[in-house]
């Protein structure tokens, strides 16, 4: 798939810009703070309904603006073209496709964007939430029943947590239906997550063999969020007094985690910051490759500040791999990275929120 055009209004320093896009590699070059990353952020919003940058959601809005919007024309490998839109007014997001209002999940299901950026090492070194997001985005795009189970689980979790925080004593009978729902939906979520990781594993192994061969064989570990030999419903009932004391549900699918270990770096503390970045990059590329295998087209790949995040040999290797695959790639940098100077690329200059094509 590829974006043929991107229009961005009110996103950070981008007041109203239109970016015509071509297949292959597009480079957005300019000084720090010019708005380069915000272009990648706009594409990412269409695929995730959130930013890859940390910080308050209000920071997305241009200073003084009360709304933002991103519009795009997306062409699939089969030639089908979709007109996508995502807007935010206050705290409310609105998604559109071909002029019709759709749910956020429908929009996210249509457009697939993966991103490697300066904060990506959090996928390896950060908390479990980042790894669950990565995992669930991948499962969502290949397993259709996942989103229904995930929504039901989130609703039941919210209801149980509300009961746990009640100021007066809550009868046990009120907990039982929500705990049963958590038990049922968690089983589905756990199964689909484990299945996805098993399918992802050969792609992870291939990516790591190319990026970090010195670390040896890869091992992937998955923890579902409660004891492997226990029934979640029974655990929730038996641990209810503890959860009441803490005011939230302490076990379940929302506590799941997974990690990568290497033969010569069995704990993540053994990895340098550079190795964390390369491991995260390998995870991003592996997820993109699996998406392409299952869906018949590559997702759009964003590489933010490529020259600062990777050394020249790794830049060249990644770009060559993505070019060979036929993926559409967006790259940012203060200048055109050396690895991209030899091959064909569409180049834009970004300055103070304005974008102009150079080549």
UniProtKB/TrEMBL annotation:
Keyword Metal-binding part of the UniProt annotation: no
Subcellular compartments: Cytoplasm
Matches recorded under InterPro entries: DNA-binding_RecF (IPR001238), DNA-binding_RecF_CS (IPR018078), P-loop_NTPase (IPR027417), RecF/RecN/SMC_N (IPR003395), RecF_2 (IPR042174)
UniProt: ATP binding residues: 30-37
Protein name: DNA replication and repair protein RecF
Ranges where the RecF/RecN/SMC N-terminal domain occurs: 3-335
Predominant localisation class: cytoplasm
Keyword ATP-binding: yes
UniProt superkingdom: Bacteria
Cross-referenced NCBIfam families: recf (TIGR00611)
UniProt source species: Dyella kyungheensis
One Pfam family from the record: SMC_N
Similarity-based family: Belongs to the RecF family.
Chain's role: The RecF protein is involved in DNA metabolism; it is required for DNA replication and normal SOS inducibility. RecF binds preferentially to single-stranded, linear DNA. It also seems to bind ATP.
Gene that this polypeptide is encoded by: recF
Keyword entries, A-Z: ATP-binding, Cytoplasm, DNA damage, DNA repair, DNA replication, DNA-binding, Nucleotide-binding, SOS response
């Amino acid at each position: 798939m590829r974006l043929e055009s991107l229009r961005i209004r009110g996103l950070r320093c981008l007041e109203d810009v239109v970016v015509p896009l071509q297949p292959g590699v597009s480079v957005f070059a300019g000084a720090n703070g010019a708005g380069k990353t915000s272009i990648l952020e706009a594409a990412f919003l269409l695929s995730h309904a959130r930013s890859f940058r940390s910080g308050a959601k209000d920071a997305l809005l241009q200073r003084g603006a009360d709304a933002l919007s991103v519009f795009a024309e997306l062409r699939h490998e089969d030639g089908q073209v979709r007109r996508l839109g995502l807007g935010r007014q206050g705290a409310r997001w609105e998604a559109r496709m071909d002029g019709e209002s759709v749910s956020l999940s429908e929009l996210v299901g249509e457009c697939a964007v993966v991103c490697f950026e300066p904060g990506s090492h959090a996928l390896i070194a950060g908390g479990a939430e980042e790894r669950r997001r990565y995992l669930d985005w991948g499962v969502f795009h290949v397993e259709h029943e996942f989103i229904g189970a995930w929504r039901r689980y989130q609703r039941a979790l919210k209801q149980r947590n509300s009961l746990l925080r009640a100021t007066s004593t809550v009868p046990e009978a009120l907990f039982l239906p929500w705990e049963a729902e958590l038990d049922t939906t968690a089983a589905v979520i756990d199964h689909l997550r484990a299945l996805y990781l098993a399918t992802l594993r050969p792609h992870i192994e291939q990516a790591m063999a190319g990026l970090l061969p010195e670390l040896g064989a890869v091992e992937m570990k998955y923890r579902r969020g409660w004891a492997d030999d226990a029934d979640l419903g029974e655990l929730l009932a038996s641990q209810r007094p503890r959860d009441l004391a803490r005011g939230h549900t302490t076990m379940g699918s929302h506590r799941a985690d997974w990690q990568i270990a290497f033969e010569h770096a069995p704990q993540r503390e053994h990895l340098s910051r550079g190795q964390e970045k390369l491991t995260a990059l390998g995870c991003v590329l592996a997820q993109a490759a699996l998406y392409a295998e299952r869906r018949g087209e590559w997702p759009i790949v964003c590489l933010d500040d490529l020259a600062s995040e990777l050394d020249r040999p790794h830049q060249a290797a990644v770009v060559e791999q993505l070019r060979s695959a036929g993926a559409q790639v967006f790259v940012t940098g203060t200048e055109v990275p050396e690895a991209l100077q030899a091959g064909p690329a569409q180049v834009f200059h970004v300055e103070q929120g304005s974008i102009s094509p150079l080549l």
